[in-house]
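Worked example 3 (structure in, sequence out).
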């Protein structure tokens, strides 16, 4: 039973718990206070009754003292009869000085009788109160003894009335306490129930934007405030988690797209390599065939009287074919070195305008064939930087060679220099750089292929047939420029909404320490 009550109390709502606690405390307090009061009242009433009984005994003794001189039993009995006015007095016994029974008063219906002699009187004759009053004659001598016995009916009635009053008081107090508790408990239960309701709604609906109302500036208010702060943090974490999930989904999609692009690039690279092998086969076969043919011509002509001029022409052609083959082999070696992930740079002061002039001078033969002119602008720009002159010369040679190859007859190739602050690294730091731009009037670059043409084995879809080439020149340029911690890019020239050639740019940092460095690509 106790376990059930305890379980009921523990599993009840906070409202019921508060009411039960207050009512229990109130009841126990009132019960203890009432019990103490009843005990005190009973003791006080008993003492008062005993005092009243003694006073009554003294009065009767003084009235009956003259009678005791003559031991007049009739008069004594009449005087004792006056005790009938006191309902609680059940028996009165009057004894002579010698201890003999002289007179008696006995309430109707009382079974207790007086003892024959004073020696036989008990202190508690009827379970009530008993007093013994000495009667003295006018001369002061002891004339007799009066014994008065009173029952407890009056005290019992008083006690019952007190108990009834106390019960009514307890009931009234409990009722008032219940009403006050029902009114006052809301100050505690309402915030707690509201907080519990909010927590339940958050749990059921996963809605972390809900907040509990703060009613008071007490501990419950602090609890609600802490709960709301916790919900703020949970909501923040939930949004961050949602953002991370969305970012993760985005990354998964991006990775998937990247894998698809990588797959397409791999397939494109395989196709490009196949095209590269076909081109290389043609490029290697052509000079080798020329070398073989002209060497055979030379061998045959040595057996005849061929002119020295004819033999010289044969050897010149052999030399050109060998040079072309050497260029192809050098390109392959350059690509292999770049793919190794390291590049050796020999850095020293170098004037790029002078390097450009040297490259233009070397390319004069090709330029005359198509009557192409190179125009160098930006005469007042300082073009001296620290770089690997041989490698930058190769970059200018490859870009200028492409411009000559794809330019139309009587075209103009414009070269400009500029110094500016540019973002060359991924660290977000701007550095002073020398920017070189070579613009031609050729066929231009197809839209979307501006970055693709710098990849190995890749040629522009507009120039990958008929013009020759291996698709390695621009890839080598990109590797050399990036080894210098620079940038290289290409753009189409726009004029009157029509494409009129392309511009190739590369930017190199001005400040480099001198000496030899192995650069990790």
């Amino acid at each position: 039973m106790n376990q059930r009550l305890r379980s009921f109390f523990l599993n009840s709502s906070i409202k019921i718990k508060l009411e039960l606690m207050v009512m229990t405390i109130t009841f126990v307090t009132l019960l203890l206070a009432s019990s103490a009061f009843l005990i005190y009242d009973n003791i006080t009433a008993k003492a008062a009754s005993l005092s009243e009984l003694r006073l009554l005994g003294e009065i009767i003794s003084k009235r009956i003292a003259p009678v005791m001189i003559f031991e007049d039993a009739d008069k004594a009995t009449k005087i004792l009869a006056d005790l009938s006015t006191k309902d609680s007095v059940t028996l009165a016994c009057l004894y002579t000085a010698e201890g003999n029974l002289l007179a008696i008063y006995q309430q109707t219906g009382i079974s207790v009788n007086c003892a024959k002699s004073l020696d036989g009187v008990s202190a508690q004759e009827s379970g009530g109160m008993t007093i013994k009053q000495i009667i003295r004659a006018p001369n002061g001598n002891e004339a007799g003894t009066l014994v008065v016995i009173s029952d407890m009916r009056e005290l019992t009635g008083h006690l019952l009335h007190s108990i009834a009053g106390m019960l009514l008081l307890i009931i009234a107090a409990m009722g008032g306490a219940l009403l006050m508790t029902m009114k006052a408990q809301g100050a505690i239960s309402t915030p707690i129930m509201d907080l519990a309701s909010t927590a339940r709604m958050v749990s059921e609906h996963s809605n972390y934007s809900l907040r509990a109302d703060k009613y008071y500036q007490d501990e419950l208010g602090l609890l609600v405030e802490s709960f709301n702060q916790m919900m703020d943090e949970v909501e923040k974490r939930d949004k961050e988690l949602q953002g991370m999930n969305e970012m993760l989904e985005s990354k998964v999609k991006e990775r998937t797209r990247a894998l698809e692009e990588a797959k397409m690039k791999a397939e494109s690279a395989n196709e490009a390599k196949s095209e590269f092998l076909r081109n290389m086969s043609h490029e290697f076969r052509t000079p080798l065939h020329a070398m073989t043919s002209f060497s055979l011509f030379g061998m045959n002509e040595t057996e005849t009287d061929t002119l020295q001029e004819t033999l010289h022409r044969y050897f010149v052609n052999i030399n050109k074919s060998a040079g072309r083959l050497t260029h192809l082999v050098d390109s392959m070696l350059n690509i292999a070195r770049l793919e190794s992930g390291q590049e050796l740079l020999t850095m020293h002061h170098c004037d790029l305008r002078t390097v450009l002039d040297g490259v233009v001078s070397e390319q004069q033969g090709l330029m005359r064939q198509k009557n192409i002119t190179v125009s160098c602008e930006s005469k007042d720009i300082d073009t001296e930087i620290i770089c690997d002159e041989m490698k930058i010369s190769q970059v200018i040679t490859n870009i200028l060679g492409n411009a000559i190859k794809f330019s139309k007859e009587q075209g103009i190739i414009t070269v400009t220099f500029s110094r500016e602050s540019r973002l060359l690294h991924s660290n977000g730091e701007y550095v002073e750089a020398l920017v070189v731009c070579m613009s031609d009037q050729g066929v231009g670059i197809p839209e979307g292929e501006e970055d693709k043409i710098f990849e190995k084995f890749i040629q522009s879809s507009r120039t990958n047939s008929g013009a020759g080439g291996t698709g390695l020149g621009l890839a080598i340029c990109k590797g050399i420029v990036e080894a210098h911690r620079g940038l290289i890019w290409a753009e189409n020239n726009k004029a009157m909404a029509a494409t009129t050639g392309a511009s190739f740019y590369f930017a190199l940092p001005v400040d480099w320490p001198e000496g030899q460095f192995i650069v990790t690509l």
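Notes: The chain has a mean pLDDT of 78. The first helix runs from residue 2 to 11.
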